[in-house]
Amino acid sequence: MFLQSLELIQFRNILRGEMEFSPRFNVISGPNGSGKSNILEALYLFFNGKSFRKARGRDMISWEKEWFRLLLQEKSLSHPRFLYYDQEKNYKYGIEQKEVAYSEFFLQICPFLLSREVFNLFYFSSGEIRRFFDMYLLIFDSGYRERILRFNRVLQERNALLKSRFFSVRELEIWDEYFVRYASEVSDARRRFIGEIDANLPQAFQKLFPSVDDAGIDYRSSFNEKDFFRAREEDRARGFTTVGPHRDRFLFRTKGKEMSAQASQGQMKSFVLSLFLTLLTLFNDRFSVKGILLLDDIFEELDPSRKKRILDEIIRSGCQVFFTMVQGKQPFGEEGRIFQIKEGIISDAAAL
């Protein structure tokens, strides 16, 4: 299964554009500010309905227009999926010319996105890093969605109770019982997932930095049942829950030290690339379908040898790839299909 074509209408700076994709490598080339990343953003919307730039719907409508519409054709379907948004904040989703519910719409394929935003992982807040790993956990663990939803509901109810200041000890004990159960489930799932990544990450990192063999991730769980009950009085005084998975931390390390305190920009970027390759390998080994790669100008600050190594791994993955780059040598050889974009106009290089 692969993505076959995309049509964009009044999306960002693209008033209208059509693209017929290669099942392997699709290169979107053009100068900075031409609209290359807008194409990846349009594709990403079909995976979860959100912009990876955290943009609002109205921010994605072309200037002085009132709506945008995207149509994505998959190889396995006779009609495209469509996604529509207008100034009245109305989203509409459809498959094969029929409108469908939000929960039924999205592609059941994992998007592996590398963008400028993702490369800032080292500067994310603790909450943003939790959401980053939870996003992948939802894909790798089918039961995690229900676990995290249950935990978040209980956390919300417990905090509302603590904030009210008027409740019985028994009321709090009831919510505490639920909290311990669901917090344990979330913590255990995160610990298993990060442990699997940590076991495989050094191998991926060595491909980019052969001299480094101890890169990894430490999961720092904030939940311990004894600490949770010990903090009950503090929670009552402060009016919110101070111990639990909502305060978990993830630390990136190499050579036995936290990377943010000692690593160069190039090493940080290589770490994110290695994490990306690790997640991709784990996904492709576990599932019958391949992930789809969305790669947005990933070569900045990488030397030629590391560029070649990451390209080799991307090619070896067997995935369908969407790769943006400024003008330059096409990195995938004859297998790549090239699209050029300038001032919002998309051209198939084969037709030029």
Helices, strands, pairings?
Blueprint: E1 3-11, E2 14-20, E3 25-29, H1 36-48, E4 67-74, E5 81-86, E6 91-95, E7 98-100, H2 102-105, E8 111-114, H3 116-119, H4 126-140, H5 144-164, H6 169-208, E9 216-220, H7 225-230, H8 232-238, E10 249-254, E11 257-258, H9 265-286, E12 292-296, H10 304-317, E13 320-325, E14 336-342, E15 345-348
Parallel strand pairs: 3-13, 3-14, 8-12, 12-13
Antiparallel strand pairs: 1-2, 1-4, 4-5, 5-6, 6-7, 9-10, 10-11, 14-15
Helix pairs in contact: 5-6, 6-9, 9-10
Task: Explain this structure.
By secondary structure, the protein is α/β, with parallel strands linked by helices. The protein has a domain at 1-109 and 293-352: Rossmann fold (3-Layer(aba) Sandwich), CATH 3.40.50. The chain is 41% helix and 23% strand. It is built from ten helices and 15 strands. A six-stranded antiparallel sheet has the order 2-1-4-5-6-7. Strands 8-12-13-3-14-15 form a six-stranded mixed sheet, with helices on both faces. A three-stranded antiparallel sheet has the order 9-10-11. α5 (144-164) packs across α6 (169-208) and α9 (265-286) packs parallel to α10 (304-317). It starts with a strand and ends with a strand. The mean pLDDT is 90.
